[in-house]
Amino acid sequence: MYRISQLAKRFGLSRSTLLYYDQEGLLCPSARSEAGYRLYSERDLDRLAAIASFRKAGLSVEEIRAILAAPEKGEQSVLKRRLAAVGEEITALKAQQSLLARMLRVQSGEALPESMDKATWVAMLRAAGMDDRAMETWHAEFERRAPQAHHAFLLSLGIAEQEALTIRRLSQSAWAGAEGGEPD
Questions:
Q1: Residue 43 — very low, low, confident or very high, per pLDDT cuts 50/70/90?
Q2: Does 100 lie in the same domain as 45?
Q3: Do the domain assignments include residue 78?
Q4: In a domain, 37, yes or no
Q5: SS3 for the chain, per residue?
Q6: Which of 69, 103, 120, 149 is the most exposed place for a label (fewest CB within 10 A)?
Q7: What are the pLDDT digits (tens) for 94-146?
Q8: At residue 38, does pLDDT exceed 60?
Q9: What domain range is 144 assigned to?
Q10: Number of domains forming the structure of the chain
């Protein structure tokens, strides 16, 4: 039998994490010592190993509870859902990475490919999952961080000077409103 501190040390977890797992019904001690200490069996140790693996895979306590309650039914469907969610997160992060790289290229003065135009850029943002509100936020942040680069970027997309100025004005209003003040 293992005491809570021994189990915590073995798995690199805090005592409070194990107490939380007990509170949530994920890992209850098999017994108590005469002094009232929680005691865990080898079976509990195996269960904690499974819980730790599921947590490392990013599963929530609720998802782990569902798997442990009915492993023959729930595990595969929960894992498939988590895998799909991770795939979506990776896609979104790759899109953000691409946008940031392009922003840096614009700031450093590198030209964007000549085939890039406003329609293509908007289509790429939509494909990356950005709606109108997200695009407004993106423009506002670009304007806040690098106004001249934002202007140059808009022009590089073939946007007319007047439309670029309008987009910048709207972007300035958006982040000024979000900050509760005027732009610097």
A1: very high
A2: no
A3: no
A4: yes
A5: CEEHHHHHHHHCCCHHHHHHHHHCCCCCCCEECCCCCEEECHHHHHHHHHHHHHHHCCCCHHHHHHHHHCHHHHHHHHHHHHHHHHHHHHHHHHHHHHHHHHHHHHHCCCCCCCCCCHHHHHHHHHHCCCCHHHHHHHHHHHHHHCHHHHHHHHHHCCCCHHHHHHHHHHHHHHHHHHHCCCCC
A6: 69
A7: 888 878 877 777 777 766 555 577 888 888 888 888 898 888 998 998 888 88
A8: yes
A9: 95-179
A10: 2
